[in-house]
Target: Arginyl-tRNA--protein transferase
Amino acid sequence: MSSKKSKTRNEASSSRGGIGEESIVADCGRNSSSCGYCKSPTRSSITHGLWTESLTVSDYQALLDRGWRRSGCYIYKPEMDQTCCPSYTIRLKASDFVPSKEQQRVRRRLERFLDGELDARPRERTEDSDVSFSGEVSESVRKSPGAAKREQNDEVEPIMKELSEQIDSAVQRCIQSGEFPSNIQVLKASVKKVLSTKRKKLAEGSEELLYTSNIAFPIAAAIKHGKTSEKGEKNNAEENRLSPESVSEKLLSEMRKVREFSGLSIKVSKGHINFLSATQVTSADRDEGESLCATRTKPSSSDLQVRKRKLEMHLKRSSFDPEEYDLYKRYQIRVHDDEPESVSETSYKRFLVNTPLIQVPPSGSDAEEKVPPCGFGSFHQQYRVDGRLVAVGVIDILPKCLSSKYLFWDPDFASLSLGNYSALQEIDWVRQNQAHCSTLEYYYLGYYIHSCNKMRYKAAYRPSELLCPLRYQWVPFETAKPLLDKKPYSVLSSPKASEPVAESTSEREDMEQRDTNDDDGEEMNNSDEELDSSVSGSDIANVLISLNGPRVRFKDLPRINNLAVRKQLGSMLIKYRKVVGAELSERMVYELR
Model:
C-alpha cells in the first residue's frame, strides 16, 4: 500500500467516524469562576475552555488523557497550578478492579431489595448527595467496633420495614374511615428494636418485647393541633379521645383486621405499639444477645408477604426525555437544594443532553477496528424498578474507556446508594464489552480532588491511578497520595534520567514548549522579517486552522499584513497548542471566530 493511501486510512481511522468527520474547536481561553468545592468567595476556580459541536471520540479520548472533561459541548481543563482545587483525572482498569467490602454490601443490599427483603425508605441525605455516584465509607468507620452491630441490625431490618409499612397502612385506613382527620400531616411510622435494658420498662409478662413504635404520639399531637386551630378550645372528653393511648388502640384494631403476624404478638402500652415474641423465653435466653433473639423470632418470607421486584437497565443514545428531566429536577431540588426556578429544560439539555461527540455505529464482524454493540458516543443508562425510572447515568463510551459524567437518582431510593451501585455496573459493563472491543479497558471516574473530602471517595475504587498534570503519565494512587497529602497540586510522575526536574511554573512551561514564549506575544520580534522567521520556525507551524471552510496549516496561511493581528494570532495558537498538545493541535481544526 502506498504511503498516501496509508495516511488517508489512518486519518479516517483516527476519527472513528468515517470520511468527512472531524473535530472542530474554538478556543475560549482562560475562565475564572467561583468554586463549588471549596466555596471560595472569590473567582478562584481557573480553567481553560474550548467550545465544540463536532468532536470525534478518538480526539475526546486524547483530550481526557490530557486532563480535559466536557460539560455538554463545552470542554474544560483546570489550570492545575493556578486553580484553588486541583482536579486530577482518575481511572481504573476494569479487569483489575477489586470491590471493597462496603461496595459488596451495596450490591447485596440492592439484591435484597429486589428480592423483597428490604424496602427503600426515604432518608434526608446520603453519602452521594453531592457527587455523581455515592460516597465510600471510610476505613476507620468500616473497622470500628460498631460495624459488627450494624451488620446485626441489617439482619432484622426487613422485619422493622414490614412492621412500619403495616402501621402506615393502618393510619391511612383510619383517615379514610374518618377515625382521624383527613387534613393532618403524619410522619412515616418508625419501628425500632428494643434494647434488653429497656424491655421491662415498656412491657410486662413473660413474652419478650422485640420492637416498638411511638407513632401514636405525633398523630395525637397533630390531631389536637388541628382541632385547636379550628375551634380554639378543648374539653376533657375530646382530649381523652385524642390521647396517644386511644390512637394506639385504634391502630391496633385496624392492624388486626387485616392480618395476624406469625411469630409475633401485638400489644399497646402507654401509647406505644409493641411487638413481642409469641413464645415464652427464659432469663437465660435474654442473655444470649440481640442477634440470636432476632434470628429466633424472625418471621418467614411467607409471613412478610415478600414481593420480588424487577430491575431493568436500558442504554440509549443521549437525547431529551421528559421523564428523565422530571427525575433530574426532583434530584437537584431535593438532594442538592437547588431552587426550582434554577432548574430548567434549557440548563438540563446544555449540561447533560447536548454532546459534540460524533456517533460511531457498531462495527461489522469483518471490520478491522472493533466497536461494542452499542457503538461509541454519548449515552444515558436508565435504571428502572418495576418500570419506574429510579436513576439515570450519563456516560461517554470511547475507544479506550467508559467515562462517567453524571448520575441522578430518585430521592425516594436514596438508601440503596444507587450512585455506588451504578459505578459497579459500569465497571462490569467495561469488562463484558472488552470481548467486542479489545481497546476498551478503562473506567474513568471524572476528576479526583484530594483537597475536597467529599470527592475522595473515588479513590475507594481500587486499584485506581491519577494523571500527572505535567507529563500526562498515569500514576498509581498509592504513589500519588503521599504527594497530595503534602500539597494539593503536585507533579505526580518522575522525570526521565535526561530530563531536569521542573519546580517552578516557568520551568514547567519551558519543558512543555521550550522554543515559544507565553507573554501574549510581547516578546515576539517587532520587525516583519523577524516575526515571519519566528512564526515559520515555531512549533505552531502545523496547527490546523479553519478559514471559513478551507483547512490550512498556520505556516501556509496567506501573509497577514497587520502586525498586531499576526502577533495576537500567534500568541493564541501558542497557548492553544500548549493546552491540547502537539498531536491534537495538528489534527483538530482550530476555528477562527
In short: The mean pLDDT is 79. The chain has three domains: 3-99+309-494, 116-121+144-297, 512-591. Residues 311 and 385 are 5 Å apart (CA to CA). Residues 3-99+309-494 form one domain.
